[in-house]
Amino acid sequence: SKSNTPAQAPPVVHYHLNNLTTSRTPIDNQETVLILTPLVKFYQEYWDNLLKLNYPHELISLGYIIPKTKEGNAAYAALQAQVTKTQSGPKNKRFASVTILRQDTESPLQSQSEAERHKMENQKVRRAAMAKARNSLLFTTMGPMTSWVLWMDADIVETPPTLIQDLAAYDVPIIAPNVFQRFYNTDTKSQDIRPYDYNNWIDSPTAKEMGAKMGKDDILLEGYAEMATYRSLMAKMYDASADPTAKVQLDGVGGATLLVKAEVHRDGAMFPAFPFYHLIETEGFAKMAARLNWKSYGLPNYLVYHDNE
Amino acid sequence: SKSNTPAQAPPVVHYHLNNLTTSRTPIDNQETVLILTPLVKFYQEYWDNLLKLNYPHELISLGYIIPKTKEGNAAYAALQAQVTKTQSGPKNKRFASVTILRQDTESPLQSQSEAERHKMENQKVRRAAMAKARNSLLFTTMGPMTSWVLWMDADIVETPPTLIQDLAAYDVPIIAPNVFQRFYNTDTKSQDIRPYDYNNWIDSPTAKEMGAKMGKDDILLEGYAEMATYRSLMAKMYDASADPTAKVQLDGVGGATLLVKAEVHRDGAMFPAFPFYHLIETEGFAKMAARLNWKSYGLPNYLVYHDNE
Ligand SMILES: Nc1nc2c(ncn2[C@@H]2O[C@H](COP(=O)(O)OP(=O)(O)O)[C@@H](O)[C@H]2O)c(=O)[nH]1
Ligand SMILES: Nc1nc2c(ncn2[C@@H]2O[C@H](COP(=O)(O)OP(=O)(O)O)[C@@H](O)[C@H]2O)c(=O)[nH]1
Ligand SMILES: [Mn+2]
Ligand SMILES: [Mn+2]
Predict the structure, then answer these.
(1) Cβ distance A166 to A304 under 8 Å?
(2) Which ligand approaches the C-alpha of residue B37 most closely?
(3) What structural domains does chain B harbor?
């Protein structure tokens, strides 16, 4: 249904949060996963990849938040078409539920080219808006039965089909694979891969000092030469010849692909839209989770792929 | 149903957050209210008072979180009995839905006498636990149709039946009535009232200085002689002869009775379980909301009553 009428709720529902598990063996325990995607542009490859995830789809719910812009309207239409097709297709491919929210605030930046959105002076407003979108989506869709939240950006076009099982097997509060990008290498004249997401990092003394000297509303950003933080970037740690299951502890995380135990969010860990220890959005989330005693980890040698414009 | 099986969800639900209103005239606009109560002891007067609220019950959903302790089990049984009675009673008294969560963590303090729970050295752990309970409840029960969240403690035993309409009429992001307590005054030998909740306050230069000199994990508390903050307490501003509709802007709020526009929470404002600007739980919530540009207000001359042990 498309209307805003509330679903008919049963008069009383009792939930025992301590019966909810988040385990190494989520399928055996029938653990539900909520996949959340803030969406401004629809990629068919993203949807096709989602369909290939071999975690039981009946345990997966999907949630989207889409801005009320021309671009958002197009993404909405494209998403709707695919959702309708999937949800009326083979039963074993259907997801448990799909919730689509239209954002009530305007996108602060109209142009969304990779160059424009990565400009340093645009980052604070842009990431504050992204933080609010993520929070709206999270607060509105997480239910009493959610065991895991998988954050997955709309431009993540390729992951192993066992993504959920692989990440859950580590049984840690927060875990991020390494986000890479495929590209055509003009030097070697062949298809190649390169790091994409610089938000997964281990903190450095330099970054801490920079933070200590900043104004309270200033933020630290990663991946900008004019603000060298000397943090250890997971993007740089990839080693094809090393143990593919290697795990490192992180202080900052990205949200492009991120598995979070629902109890981390339930404790209050969200995406700060304001500078929190000079961090914002997903990086601020890792810090807030740390303040709540939940640790973040990353898998340097486990790759997922971001679209290449 | 008592089981943890997920409710059968429709395949796709679309929600337009910008069609959701939070207005001065919430009944005309059919705005839904989610009343959230962390509960460790059940008071019949609380439930009777809830039933007397004359906001249309079909627009009200209730949410509870109850610890897994002996005391919590007793509260759970008492609540269940009343819920069953109400939800099978006259249609116009029934609430839209009731969600009861059992907490997955232990209460850090077993004794819950007023004297014990108000001891200064117990406050930080106790309020951190309360913050997590509030967040679990909020993140788990707020849905796409929620317009308002009314926080109401289980020991609030008396409010005007027009509470929701009265508070909503101010059309502000966050609003708190003044929480008083009835008692027998042995001096005047008659029933009297006195302030109860000291968490609704306007900040002071002294408190700010104290905060600036504290360690990063220390917290400011209100209502303790050994930590005089010189904040202006709403509890002290009550004036029976003054304008009953008077409104003041606040920097800290209590959660005993508090009306919040759902969009404030959706932006990410939650109850920090860690020191946030040296504030925690509901007081930290007001500060976090302020960081998200949402203002808090209080009504010094609009009273609700806390139980008197
Ligand atoms: N709801 C919403 N989603 C957005 C907005 N801007 C970007 N997104 C989505 O948020 C995710 C991250 O944004 P993106 O521009 O890819 O970030 P980057 O790859 O880190 O530069 C993607 O899934 C986008 O489709 C917005 O204003 N509102
Ligand atoms: N879920 C949960 N609720 C609690 C716990 N401790 C207190 N409460 C409830 O939280 C609210 C505030 O607690 P209360 O002890 O009345 O606080 P005070 O009046 O500020 O001292 C009341 O509704 C209590 O029933 C707890 O450990 N877990
Ligand atoms: Mn992207
Ligand atoms: Mn109380």
Answers:
(1) no
(2) 2
(3) 21-306 (3.90.550.10)
